[in-house]
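Each field is set out as follows.
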Amino acid sequence: MEHDFYYYTKEELLSSPKIPLIVMKDNQSVFKAMAQEMTEEIKRKNALGENTLLICPVGPVGQYPYFVEAVNQQNISLKNVWFINMDEYLTEDKRWIPQEHRLSFRGFMNRAVYGKLKPELVMPKEQRIFPDPENLACVQETIQRLGGVDICFGGIGINGHVAFNEAQDDLSEKEFLELRTRVLKISSETRAVNSIGDLNGALDDMPYDCVTIGFNEIFQARKIRLGCFRDWHRSVVRHAAYGERSPHFPVSLLQAHKDVNIRLTEFVAELPE
């Protein structure tokens, strides 16, 4: 069965999407916009004397060099900022893969973000949170203690997953929206796509398990901002914006969120002739 929306032209795509779409020139424009929204929210909350809580991905990651540069140049204090990262790969015995592993999201954040920020600006280590297979309640407890997530940033996977919330056809929309931080198997589709992007196609070396924040944590964020820029995002964005709400394509459930948008490139908006 063909899905007409996969073949929408740019004009059709932008005519009446169920999730607001913002078309930007190129990848760097998307990344810069994400970084700017991160820094502006932190500055706004700092000025109010309030804490900032952001959910952050490792994929996309192009926003982080711009974020680091802005924080360091503008001397933006992160002392009252909490980052909750979305997910992490696990070993066969369901523990975090070592930070030294080339796929470790924790290792990436330490090298590319925390390690590049001025020491006097960066937040304490206890405010750099990853979902932990040995303490699954930590994410939800942090969110509740700090009064909610200000903005959730992220991308969209090949089967519509946000974080590692893979498609689950056996769940209702309500059940899927109740999913919290948990350990789960990574789908074969996601393993294949991630192996292409991160391991030059070395599928056999991709982990099978992960720990992820749930769709509950994502949906409860006051704002949700997603970035799409890859070639296969052309179909992903069209499905997100025009498909029916369903756990079969999890990002479609965000059609019901009060403040969400997808930033996409001209490349994604256009279809090749």
